[in-house]
Structure formats: structure tokens, C-alpha cells
Amino acid sequence: MATHRIPILGFATRPDDTGECFFEPADLNFGSNDLARQFVLALGSALAAQPTVKHGVYGSFRVPKNFVSAPKFVWEWAATLTTGDVVFDTDYRAVAAGESLDQATWQQSQTVTDTAAGTARNSNGAEISPTAGNFAVDDLVEFFFGRDGADGADTMAGRAYIFELTFEYSDT
User: Fold this and answer.
1) The pTM is what?
2) Which superfamily does 3-29+39-170 belong to?
3) How far is CA 63 from the centre of its chain?
4) Where along the chain do its domains lie?
5) What is the pLDDT of residues 142-155, one digit of tens each?
């Protein structure tokens, strides 16, 4: 069994309109030693005790030809803070050829709560495992990925920075 990951955060994504979700250069908050100089997704306000809305990015990707099972949304994130929990949310709809792209509801919505690392700027990994039967080869997956600051379990008093968001799956 081989496991694969495809990146799904990038040009096919669009931040929502809340103002607390945007892309920024990593070196703005992660110091001058950041060699990659990539853009990261910032979720939440640096000035508020915590975000008070659900905010994130919308995007899409195609289910790969060798997809068989075990789908996961996996991400790497970090924070400049060392305490608090973040509630991440993933909503998606897998659309087969011939189905309408004009949908009013998500096929599945899931959340996971993750705790900030005890050291500032250290990498945290988190994942959500959606229902495998919802995906088929060549489906167009429309998704929302974000932070649910309206959830009372989200207690981190600042931004969560997303460095990578991927779709992981097995080909056997």
C-alpha cells in the first residue's frame, strides 16, 4: 500500500471575506531565518483575544486517478504563541462528472481541535479523515478549510499560520 499527498493550498484557493484570513510572507512573523520565504495562510486576528467567526479559504482539486481509499486532509501549522487550542474546520463536496456544481450544502463538515506547540514557531501537524465513500476518481472536490473562532473550544489568542494543506490517500 502506498500513501500519496497532493497539495491543495495555493492558486486554486481564495480567502474568505472576513478580513481575518489572508496570505502573508512567512518571514513577517517567523523571523529573518526563514529560508523558504514562502507565503503562509494566516487565520485569526493578532489583536483579538481570539477570532469570533469561522474563516478560511475556499478551493478545489481533482481526486487523483490512483485514488482507492483512506482520504485525509492534512496540514502543518504553527503559531507565535505557545498556549491555547485552535478549532480547524474542513467542509467539502465531491462532485462527479455530470453533477451540478451549484450546490447549497456541503457533503460533509468536520472539525478537529489542536493545541499550540509549547515553543513559538514550532510545527504542529493535524488531520481530518473524511468518509472514503464520498470520493471517486476524477471527482472535483470543492472545499472550505479554516479556523472556527466561533467555537468555544478555540482559545488561542492569536493567529494560526498554515504552511501546508494536502489531500492524502492510499492507492491500494
Assistant:
1) 0.83
2) Galactose-binding domain-like (2.60.120.260)
3) 17
4) 3-29+39-170
5) 999 999 988 999 99
